[in-house]
Amino acid sequence: MGAWASQNKLLLGQLKVDEKTNEIIVMPQLLEILSIKGCVVTADALNCQKAIADENY
Q1: Contact of 3 with 27, CB cutoff 8 Å
Q2: What is the DSSP string of 27-48?
Q3: CB–CB of 1/29 below 8 Å?
Q4: 3 state DSSP class of 12
Q5: What tens digit of pLDDT does each residue of 13-52 get?
Q6: Which contiguous run of DSSP H or E holds residue 9?
Q7: How many helices (H) and strands (E) does the chain have?
Q8: What gap in Å lies between CA 1 and CA 10, rounded to an integer?
Q9: pLDDT at 9
Q10: Which of 1, 4, 17, 21 is the most exposed place for a label (fewest CB within 10 A)?
Q11: What is the pTM of this model?
């Protein structure tokens, strides 16, 4: 799973999603390592989980 800055065309971070898990587990880990407070973040529908959207990253 990767975090892409579209305006800058830059990969901000990337984490491996293991075979027996999914993006829902990895998304919070990726957001935790990024400094994105106050930024607009877009994600696919799978990552629109309440636990992910409510966090203060």
Answers
A1: no
A2: HHHHHHHS--TT------GGG-
A3: no
A4: strand
A5: 999 999 998 899 999 999 999 988 888 888 889 888 888 8
A6: none
A7: 2, 2
A8: 14
A9: 95
A10: 21
A11: 0.79
- Any idea what the Cα angle at residue 14 is, between residues 8 and 15, rounded to 5°? 165
Residues 6+ apart with CB under 8 A from 57: 31, 32, 34, 36, 37
* 11, 21, 40, 50 from 7: Cα distances, Å: 11, 30, 12, 27
Write the CB contacts of 15 (distance below 8 Å, at least 6 apart in sequence). Answer: 1, 26, 29, 30
Q: Give the Cα separation of 18 and 40 in Å (integer).
A: 27
Which amino acid, residue 22? N
| Two tokens, residue 6 | 């579209």
